[in-house]
Automatic annotation (TrEMBL):
Residues 21-226 form the MacB-like periplasmic core domain. The keyword RNA-binding does not apply. Its main location: membrane. This is Putative ABC transport system permease protein.
Length: 378
């Protein structure tokens, strides 16, 4: 029998106990996988950019900015590209089915943010064919069951004709740079939206600025805000990541809350696992004594017990993380769950750490057990 076979048979010595312990570990890592995916997606840990800047109204992000600001921002020497967006929220079919439309200049948004959204020249050309053409994000298209060429109705901002009914034709679907990219919205042509809407003509909600290579985003942000310091609509310029984090902090410190919840879960499972392994070692005192008589050294016995706990945590943790991954694939785009490589790496590190920590005390007990005391159990 090999060392690994001995370790595996010891784990399955009490099958029900091993299964229940693995199940508990799996539930703990299912909770961790989902919460970590939520933090990763909502705070933009993987997808938000530190280099892409957003220029908003300083008084409130809900207030517009004049489109005329575009030329002054573009005149800054350290600005590589600048675009603008006017956000229109509405619904499709029923009021609960909320959808966001970003009105943009196709060529400008491709230059400023095309890499992050994967706006190819073919998509931009298709969007420019007519004023009612829109590009739909992959997550939104999947959720609604839309396809290219489909005509969709949208109830949104008040139009100049007094109605709120808008009609668009899907010209293409953009993917986003990776799984963490937000693609749950549509891109429409600003000129068509601006001409048809009843209010806020020639205004935008934000400008998107890409600095030139080597230019500090924070320095450029300060210079842009200085341009409009004495204007009627002053600006506040932030990176995409800063904006997302500031937005979430308005409600709560999401990272702290998640850390506290996950910490409580792991402390609980750690106490349960340690107590179970100590009890398992006490059951096998005679066998441990036999191993010592047969020549098993203290390091090998230590490795045997630690290997058992690692095996339990690996099997249970893999099951929990697998379920978390399936959950993020099925509901991730709608709820901002992103199970990326960062979450996986942290999960594996926690599995290894908890597995070793759980087995440390039972292993030390087994190593320090005198042979004579072990044989007295029979």
């Amino acid at each position: 029998m090999t060392f690994f076979q001995l370790m595996r048979r010891n784990v399955w010595r009490k099958r029900l106990r091993a299964i229940l312990l693995m199940f508990s570990v799996g539930i703990a890592f299912l909770i961790y996988g989902l919460t970590a995916s939520f933090v990763s997606g909502s705070q933009g840990a993987a997808g938000a950019s530190d280099n892409l800047l957003g220029v908003f109204n300083k008084s409130s992000r809900g207030l517009p900015l004049p489109l005329a600001y575009l030329s002054r921002i573009a005149a800054e020497g350290d600005v590589a590209a600048v675009a603008y967006t006017a956000r229109m929220r509405g619904f499709v079919d029923v009021e609960k089915n909320v959808v966001a439309v970003s009105a943009v200049d196709p060529l400008a948004i491709a230059a400023a943010n095309g890499d992050e959204l994967r706006l190819t020249p073919e998509l931009i050309a298709a969007m420019e064919e007519a004023g009612d053409r829109v590009l739909v994000g992959r997550a939104l298209a999947k959720a609604e069951g839309w396809s290219i060429g489909q005509r969709i109705g949208f109830t949104g901002q008040l139009r100049a004709d007094g109605s709120r009914n808008w009609s668009f034709t899907i010209a293409g679907i953009f993917e986003g740079a990776d799984a963490s990219s937000d693609t749950y919205f549509m891109l429409a042509r600003y000129d068509a939206i601006n001409a048809a809407r009843a209010r806020d003509k020639d205004t935008v909600d934000a400008f998107v600025v890409r600095p030139r290579p080597g230019v500090s985003p924070s320095v450029l942000a300060a210079r842009i805000d200085a341009l409009f310091a004495n204007s009627a609509a002053q600006t506040r310029t932030q990176s995409e990541k800063q904006f997302l984090e500031a937005f979430l902090r308005q409600f709560a410190d999401i990272g702290l809350i998640v850390s506290l919840v996950v910490g409580a879960v792991f402390v609980t499972i750690l106490m349960i696992a340690v107590n179970t392994m100590i009890f398992a070692v006490r059951e096998r005192r005679f066998e441990i004594g036999v191993l010592k008589v047969l020549g098993f050294s203290s390091p090998r016995i230590l490795a045997l017990i630690l290997g058992e706990t690692l095996f339990i945590f690996l099997v249970g943790g893999a099951g929990g993380l697998g379920l978390a991954k399936l959950a993020t694939l099925s509901i991730g785009p709608e709820f901002g769950l992103v199970f990326g490589t960062t979450v996986l790496a942290k999960s594996l590190a926690i599995i290894a750490g908890l597995g070793l920590l759980t087995g440390l005390l039972p292993a030390v007990i087994a190593v320090r057990l005198p042979i004579i005391n072990a044989f007295r159990t029979r």
